[in-house]
Amino acid sequence: MESFRNVKKRRAGVLVSLPSIISEHSFECGDIYSLYPLCDWAKDVGFSIIQLLPLNDTGFGYSPYSAISAFAIDPLYISLHKLGFNSKSRKREIRFLQNHPIRIRNLKLEIIRKYYTENQKEAMSEATYFLEKHHWCFSYAAFRLLYEEFTDKGWWEWPKEYQDPNFAKEYIFSKRREDALFWVYLQKIAYDQLSEVKTYYEDMGLYLKGDMPILTSRNSCDVWEHPEFFIMDLQAGAPPDDFSKTGQTWGFPVLNWEVLEKTNYSWWKDRLSYLEHFFHLYRIDHVIGMYRIWSIPSADATALHGWFHPQFGIAKDEFQKEGLNPKEFESLGLIHEFKPDHYIFYWDFWKEAGYQNLPEETKARLYPLSELHIKEEEKHWKESGEKILEIFESFSSMIPCAEDLGSVPSFIRDSLFEREMIGIDVVRWTRSFTTGEFIGEESYRKNAISVLSTHDTSLVMDWWKNEGDEESKLQFFFDRLDKKRPESDDEILLGLLEFVFKTSSLFSVQLFQDLALGVPSVLENPEKHRINLPGTADRSNWTYRFPILIEDFASDFKRNLALRKLLIDSGRNS
Known about the structure:
The chain is α/β, with parallel strands linked by helices. 39% of the residues lie in helices and 13% in strands. It holds the Pfam family Glyco_hydro_77.
């Protein structure tokens, strides 16, 4: 595609949670077919990037960031309409804002399995051919069958023989080949449908942006087959901050970069190569984790006793040089021996009573040890992260975009800037480091994506109405620009969209719900249209359904005209 070389120019895009975007041909939730009318509408208005959340198989879970395979596409997204099936499960009217993904997937599986059984010879032949070209599917199909069979257990709780992936794969494909190939057949269908979408987008001059989670569910095919790629006694998370005094525990095992390096990062290469069949750009989830990641003992319920991994730590003899015995401070809960004769200091250890009760002379010798190797650590982390990102770029022609939100250390921020990695700036959080105030449009990072909301935040209208001081928002987004203060929700949203599109960011990609001009349900009750609320139960998230069919949404002349004007005025129309 010749124009692909010109992707890095001023553009606007739309971020969608695919199951939420329902077409008149959808089977209850959004699917791969939904991307066609979405593309046609985006092209008409002037958007040229469509960004999707991960499409990986979530199994019995809900979050696409906790999938059971780093490769497999969720059968939920297979379009029955594209397969030529006329099965429908809904009326044209959308009455509820929640999908039921597991139920919908099971209904689809029944329909496709019936076809598979009736056309078994041809279907199994197609699946076998796909399997020969995509070897990861061998492990996935075996795992998926066992995962379905042992519904309430992680793979480490399965019968011992099935905990061995080599035995399990050989057994499943010899004794239950027909069932195993059904799961391969599903992946073949999803692959065909999604790769055809990419071709369609190229023909229309649009770009698809995918999402690559950095972490993988403990109960996944990848961890089952390659536990050596992960540090199983650690879980990833985030250290304590102003938002969470005890930090965050995510449950995902920590990547073992040393082992991955010995394989020339083959697992990552295979992942990126597969993604490239479907996407032109991709988001690197939690790019900070490529440099270092907060690692916590897997049994811990809080992140307080974690540390940045990898880490040199403070050697036993470095304590001894100061006349200190590290075991004494370990018993006080201030440090931890994370590898033989090497210790890490716990987060905010100096706030603990065990530290406060120490003699001042002891504190004076102990505290400097906690900062002893900071410069060396940062240099090592920077070099390691850059090496990984450079290797990633060599694996694919897709354009990487870094999710660099949160508390990003200056050395990582500098590294991403030097590498010219495209970052992300969320308007509500993009403020002056000195005054804490919002910054003007011209002060945004040029090599970034400006957004009003993300899948993990409230919608921008929820933020406007319910978070922070509304008067300061009015003064900045309207008074400062000599614009009349808004008298309706539509006028508020229009003003915020005008601002974000006019930022100096290379791309400006907005959540689909934040483009809902003239949709009362979204504007008046934005809290009901949120995709995910981090830290809450999995099944209460990731089930959102937009209240209007995409075809009906796309036919609104007034909304399209308003959005088209915003994109033209901001120089982002494709």
